[in-house]
Amino acid sequence: MKGIFFTSVLMLFIHHFGISQSSIFIGTGGSVYTTGTSSMTLENAKLINNGTFTSINGNILISGNAPTTNTTFEGTGITTFNNLTINKISNGLQLNQNIVVTGNLNLVKGLIHTNGNNLKCGATTGASSASYVVTD
After folding, report:
1. Contacts of 5 by beta carbon, 8 Å cutoff, 6+ apart
2. Within 10 A of 11 (CB to CB), how many other CB atoms are there?
3. What pTM, to 2 d.p., does this model score?
4. d(Cα 97, Cα 103) in Å, to the nearest integer?
5. How many angstroms separate the CA atoms of 90 and 63, rounded?
6. Do residues 22 and 45 lie in contact, with contact meaning Cβ atoms separated by under 8 Å?
7. Are strands 83-96 and 59-64 parallel, antiparallel or unpaired?
8. Exposure of 128 by Cβ count < 10 A (0-12 exposed, 13-18 middle, 19+ buried)?
């Protein structure tokens, strides 16, 4: 399994950043901030946040079609998204930590399993029988 390790502050000033079938690891005391109109795509990937992940503007897209892989958010840190879009052809997003969506949670396809964690969001769009939040 590939991993990207962040141990200090990383500012993403790029327009688009994508991770596919890997892990992003933010260590204790580390921070990742996305600003401007940036976008980040996590395709069948895992976000392990033991520091701070903050998407101030822009969009985070959860995508992928791996038949046995949920995208997971986990760790002990604070994870905040401006806009979060779920578009998983297979499986969905599994929360193993609390997350906050300050802007819009856009549900296109795929389920979000909260696993007893909190999902706090401003607005939600696109919920359907193919895309919704499961509070388990």
Report:
1. 25, 27
2. 11
3. 0.82
4. 19
5. 9
6. yes
7. parallel
8. exposed
Smallest Cα–Cα separation from 110: which of 64, 75, 74, 76?
64
Q: Are 57 and 36 in contact (CB under 8 A)?
A: yes
For 132, the token pair is 């919704």
CA distance 104 to 49: 21
Please write the tens of the pLDDT for every residue from 26-65. Answer: 889 998 888 888 888 888 888 999 999 998 888 999 998 8
Closest CA to 61 of 50, 49, 47, 51: 47
Structure tokens at 77: 């840190």
Q: How far apart are CA 33 and CA 122, in angstroms?
A: 20
Which two tokens mark 8? 């200090």
3-state secondary structure of 12: strand
pLDDT string in tens for the chain (136-residue length): 444 444 334 444 333 344 545 788 888 999 888 888 888 888 888 899 999 999 888 899 999 888 777 889 999 999 999 999 999 988 899 999 999 999 999 999 999 999 999 999 999 999 999 999 999 8
